[in-house]
Amino acid sequence: MHNTSLITRRSVITGSGVGLLAMITGCTNTAGPDDPATASPPQGGASGEWSYEGASGPQHWGELDDEFTTCSTGTAQSPIDVPSNAPLSSSPTTLDYTVADFQARDTGHTVELHALSPQRITVDGTQYTFKQMHYHAPSEHTVGGTSYEAEFHFVHQSDDDALAVIGVLATAGKDNAAWSPVIDAVPATRGGNSPEVTGLTLTSLLPDSLGHYAYDGSLTTPPCSEGVRWLLLQTPIELSTGQIEDLRSVHSGNNRPTRPLNNRKISQTGQ
């Protein structure tokens, strides 16, 4: 029996002046590893350069730089395989996303979407500011051993530099009109910039049901810092095969394999 999770959506639609309030039950500094300020193209060889394959791939990240040792030694690493019978979180979470403009940018490891005005969530009374959203294809998290076509990470940071990440899994299905502006903004070449995505509300990118698994984990890219609060949505979104291929045409196979759960309990976080 799953616990009931409560996420409140609070979206402001500026064009019509209508406020929408619906109650749904159901990567550790500002410049993170997938941030344009710190990301480097996936090359191999020099210290600190990392990728998703070969000598600089995930199994070797901890050896590439002294700052990456947690990738090998950490005991609360992400992603994980979520057991199919894991309970959902009952922690109250409020999404305070408003209509905003965004900039897409390729980091060399993924494509990030950055908001040009503040977007926030509140988890268990702690407020986090949206930093960026990026994707991995195929998914990094699995559920009951099942992998998904893609996974999107909505990364948020609190005033004391704690991170909370909403994970959204994606399956192949119908064309998803809400995601079209985001996917259309994916740069045609690695390292490129795109025109702004205008008039987008982040809640439109999420599934209707926001029931989620919560656990304490880490960044899924070097330096693999721990202490990240993960909220992985149970219900995946659907993207068309064409939309998924558009994502994979720029970055494919940019997923870290799952890590041991160890003594962690799903939906019982220590934060």
UniProtKB/TrEMBL annotation:
> What CDD domains does this protein's entry cite?
alpha_CA_prokaryotic_like
What SUPFAM superfamilies does the entry give? Carbonic anhydrase
Q: Which UniProt keywords apply?
A: Lyase, Metal-binding, Zinc
* GO molecular function list: carbonate dehydratase activity; zinc ion binding
Q: Which PROSITE patterns match?
A: ALPHA_CA_2 (PS51144), TAT (PS51318)
Q: Name one Pfam family in it.
A: Carb_anhydrase
| Alpha-carbonic anhydrase domain location | 48-270
Q: Which reaction does it catalyse?
A: hydrogencarbonate + H(+) = CO2 + H2O
Indicate the family of this protein: Belongs to the alpha-carbonic anhydrase family.
Instruction: Report the protein name in the record.
Output: carbonic anhydrase
Q: Which organism is it from?
A: Kocuria turfanensis
